[in-house]
Amino acid sequence: MSQYFHSVTLDKSLCKGCTNCIKRCPTEAIRVTGGKSHIIEERCIDCGECIRTCANHAKSALVDGFDRLSEFDYRIALPPPAFFGLWKPQSEIPVACARLLSLGFDEVFEVAVAADVVAQATRLLVKDRNRPKPYISSACPAVIRLMQVRFPSLLPNLIPLEAPIEIAATLAKEEALARTGMPADRIGAFFLSPCPAKVTAIKQPVGRMRSNIDAALSISEVYGAIARMPASKAKPVTIRGTPSGIGWGGAGGEADATGIKAAVSVAGIHSVIQVLDEIERGRIHDIQYIEAQACVGGCLGGCLVSQNPFISKVRLVAAAETYGARQPAVPPIEVGRLLRSSKLSFDHPIEPRPVMKLDPDLARALVMMRDLEKTLETLPGLDCGACGSPSCRALAEDIVRGNALKTDCIFLLRERVRELAEEMVDLARKVPPSMGQQAAGPSGSAEVGKRAQDETGGGGRDDSR
């Protein structure tokens, strides 16, 4: 059984080996060999970049289906703040929330309520002078996994708070238990996921032993199911999230909700990498908090969201202003109590993934690193991806690991073919005299003839006539 669960899956029958995906993967987790791509499981962070870039739709996200609802007696829908950006705020949002109940849910609990809680707790934690700064948001699971793989030294900078989706599931189940009296195992929490990273965080969480969420549905599938429903007079659902909580769905909303002045919002996995690299190099000193989201546009830009994130952002802002509650559902005094009781914190340490090590044995790893650098010097440095590795350095690493050859590089292959061709021509010109002029062939006939003239003084005769 695999050590890792991944929502991002590959259908090799659809893969054309085009190499587009390998150049977009932020952790160099994809290779193309034999005309098909494959994913290095320990490096994949389920960010969904390969899903976006694959023109052949060979990459997709594995999610739960609506059939999972039948496993529970009481079913809670957990729509994220991004859900509000999918609808026209003037008329469709109350209807959409009500129609979630028509899909088979018994209750709707907005993740925006938990986002308010996390924002309040973040304001309190940032005041701690004993932790390394800047704090880095822990809301995006793809960013956490990115740090595990590429920036393990920055893991202490992660703010020690659960993501809003986990806190929402906890609060929703506690309320349902108190209200219904049902056994805890008969109450199911269903998250409407905008991205594969959150699906993976539910199936194989980081920072906790087990997720409070029981299943993850694709937000685009839920949207489609609601949009196809006939008009009805369903009872409107009261929106409990505040404008700042709802605003978490778009890039910058999280930083705005915390109210921290020295905060930076960065969205898009490659932009996140640039900022984390700056922090790791010690070049950022005046920032207290980093909102880091893997998708451009925040959760509105998740690859399981079917709408344009820029249009959705306008709708999200309007929805927050129109329907947002004036006061948070969980008051500050309660947030302080939850924070002190560690109910908002990780219950399991977040460890690095040692995937960049060349070998467990240090001496062997040093030898391989020396060979890697020497091999890299022989490569063109173009990072074209034609070899099936995302960069020349990645190819050099694959070579020293024994997973690739130097001639996988088309430039080195071309040079080698040229050298072999020249050697063949040179050999053809050195045919032994005993083989005769005809055996020498066209390329060797001139030299053989010249040799015969030299040996006979120019008076040789043709015995073949």
Characteristics:
three-stranded parallel beta sheet; Alpha-Beta Plaits; 3 domains; 465 residues
Short structural description:
This protein has 17 helices and eleven strands. It has 465 residues and is of the alpha/beta class. The C terminus is likely disordered.
Describe the fold and architecture.
This protein is of the alpha/beta class and 465 residues long. It has helices at 20-24, 49-53, 92-102, 111-125, 141-150, 164-180, 196-203, 219-227, 243-246, 253-258, 269-280, 309-323, 332-340, 362-378, 392-400, 410-428, 436-456; strands at 8-10, 30-33, 36-39, 59-61, 74-78, 107-108, 135-136, 187-193, 215-218, 263-267, 289-293. It has a 4-stranded parallel β-sheet with strand order 6-5-8-9, sandwiched between helices. Helix 4 crosses helix 6 (164-180), helix 4 (111-125) crosses helix 13 (332-340) and helix 14 crosses helix 15 (392-400). The chain is elongated, with a radius of gyration of 31 Å. The protein starts with 7 loop residues before the first strand and ends in a 9-residue tail after the last helix.
